[in-house]
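For the sake of transparency, this paper describes our internal protein records without simplification. Because each token names a local backbone shape, the row as a whole describes the fold. One such record is reproduced below, unchanged from the form in which we store it.
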Amino acid sequence: MGDAVLLGVVDLICQNVRRVDFVGRLGSDEFVVCMPASPLSDGRLVAQRLRRAIAGQAFETPLGPVRTRCIVGVAAAERRETDLWAVITRAAAVREELTPSATG
């Protein structure tokens, strides 16, 4: 069942980013989207769009449709920054401010 949901999430991510963006899997259920030459504001818009798209989708599984939610974080690489893990760490640190409240 989990694989069907993960594949569905990947499909939604790919539908909501540009061809030049990089989508990668970091962990069992963690993904990263790198958006070259994009301002932080664009990253925030894409993150919110992905969060809404994933929350609004029922993923077909062998046991029936499953809904899920995601937590997102956004960070921008500083000029000449080459340490991708530093950027990912900053994104993880701010993910809570983009996470919907339990009531919203």
In short: The CA atoms of residues 41 and 103 lie 25 Å apart. The two ends are 27 Å apart (CA to CA). The mean pLDDT is 87.
